Amino acid sequence: MSVTHRLTAPAPGWTATADVVVVGSGVAGLTVALNVRKAGLRAMVVTKAMLDEGSTRWAQGGIAAALGEGDTPEQHLDDTLVAGAGLCDEEAVRTLVTEGPDAVRRLIATGALFDRAEDGEILLTREGGHHRRRIAHAGGDATGAEISRALVAAVRDDPGIELIEHALVLDLLTDAEGHAAGLTLHVMGEGQRDGVGAVRARAVVLATGGMGQVFSATTNPAVSTGDGVALALRAGAAVTDLEFVQFHPTVLWLGPDAEGQQPLVSEAVRGEGAHLVDADGVRFMVGQHELAELAPRDIVAKAITRRMQEQGAEHMFLDGRHFGAEMWEHRFPTILASCRAHGIDPVTAPIPVAPAAHYASGGVRTDRLGRTSVPGLYACGEVACTGVHGANRLASNSLLEGLVFAERIAADLAERHRAGELPERTVDVAAARAARPVPLPPSEARAEIQRLMSRGAGVLRSAASMAGSAAGLALLAEQAHSHMAEEKPADPRVETWEAANLLLVATALVAAAGQREETRGCHWREDFPERDDAHWRRHLITTLTASGDPVSTPEEQ
Ligand SMILES: Cc1cc2nc3c(=O)[nH]c(=O)nc-3n(C[C@H](O)[C@H](O)[C@H](O)COP(=O)(O)OP(=O)(O)OC[C@H]3O[C@@H](n4cnc5c(N)ncnc54)[C@H](O)[C@@H]3O)c2cc1C
């Protein structure tokens, strides 16, 4: 298989080499790089902005692992399977929960400082869907920042890891056998590696994070534009479960026109006893689920949305006034500061909250070694779909997934290297040139894509709402094609490449969500309100057609 489509871009003007090139510098990418190095391979990490600019550093609540007394991987597995609503790959979940506790201990050995009790035990909190306290946290509610700090320090300390910041990866390069052989990228900077270039490598690992930026309101940072999923589709890889986007129930509501990254109010706030109430102070989650406010996220997001619709309200409230100032300051300093920065004091007032796009449960399909359907191309972290999340991610399983599967990818690469199965590759230049160039939409398309997606393919979906999104997205694609045909294409640059990636991923997401005629996990269809195991207890696999359109096929049962 070779790359069938590529982003419109100038030909590479420079070349670099590595044994393994890792795209992205969150928990997944940096853990792969550190472990690949231990196996004696030269790693290069290429990242779009600064090293710490992905979702990882924003993670608040923590990392889930059966570390507490009385807790077991089996109980963690049970909770994960329930949240995944019938679509988890049980073996992948078993891998996650059994290898998770030691992976967290190794993260601690790398330098991450978790919160501990006076006796030295790691403090554990609860989050939605977990029947036990099993979420380890750092800096109160700054877990991701601490993990990122520790991993960034470790990679900076390792002279065998080359780091390229401000480098947007465009497309995969393959050899004559269709094996990954490197990638093209655009480096924003000055010097020998400026502009579009190529990195040649024996294997490529995608760790590009999520795609929250396809929606108007999201907890994800600006870099989360689904680039890895779009690249994988253009490279001929299979992508799955795209329709399962988790909307976080409690995102600080900043007004009806707020766009881009919005501050999160972590589930751990509910874990410590904050209540969800409507404008009349009624706790509407009580009686809806045995765990009330700590029900799985999809249930809480749906209940909030339903209540907002019933009452014609733009948001609900999260009431943690009973914590008192001292607990807010010590346990949730980041959230307290971000609420106060927006004029809300959670010590004295309930916090206005509404759901926003938060996590992509689907992504580039991998096996339990992180291998995608393209030989030599691996995917790890939020960009990947290992099967652990099914139709809905259990809270705080994603940092853990990034760690565990990164270690597995590095182990697989090390094993293949030892076995002589990871030779240097020669890029098939003719194949790269033959790939069809994807026309670029103008940079303003980003906001239009986000509006179309939030309006028609958000928390609540129906055939009619998604037809509206699909038509708008198709129009944007048509306009880009006709501008290219008229030789008036948008300039190839970061904003237009990102817009092209967002457009492809949004189109693929809507195609899958339109096809799945049922309600399951975080996919909520108003017109098909029931879960339909007879037809839909299976995955939708998305690939690109020869003309570059995403098509989703139900997996054989
Ligand atoms: C506000 C918030 C709170 C969260 N809280 C938790 C929590 O408490 N517990 C939990 O388990 N999970 C949580 N999550 C989810 C979790 O943080 C992410 O799923 C996880 O950090 C993803 O890690 P990653 O390494 O896959 O990607 P990221 O950390 O997002 O890193 C992706 C990297 O890829 C780079 N990149 C992207 N595209 C390109 C490109 N084209 N070229 C080059 N580089 C590229 C980015 O710049 C970035 O460095 C939270 C997420 C958010 C947004």
Q: What does this protein look like?
A:
- The longest helix has 23 residues, at 463-485.
- This protein has helices at 27-38, 73-83, 90-110, 143-156, 227-234, 267-271, 297-311, 324-331, 333-341, 397-418, 429-434, 445-456, 463-485, 494-515, 533-536, and strands at 5-7, 15-17, 20-23, 43-46, 63-64, 124-125, 135-136, 161-164, 167-174, 180-187, 195-200, 203-206, 217-218, 239-240, 245-252, 260-261, 275-277, 316-319, 351-360, 363-365, 377-379, 384-385, 436-438, 540-544, 550-554.
- It contains 15 helices and 25 strands.
- The model has no long low-confidence stretch (mean pLDDT 95).
- Helix 3 (90-110) packs across helix 10 and helix 5 (227-234) crosses helix 14 (494-515).
- A 5-stranded parallel beta sheet has the order 8-4-3-12-21, covered by helices on one side. It has a 5-stranded mixed beta sheet with strand order 22-20-14-24-25, covered by helices on one side.
- It is of the alpha/beta class.
- 59% of the residues are buried.
- The protein binds flavin-adenine dinucleotide.
- Residues 23-29, 46-49, 53-56, 58-63, 143-144, 167-169, 207-210, 219-220, 223-224, 227, 264, 359, 381-383, 396-399, 402 line the site of flavin-adenine dinucleotide.
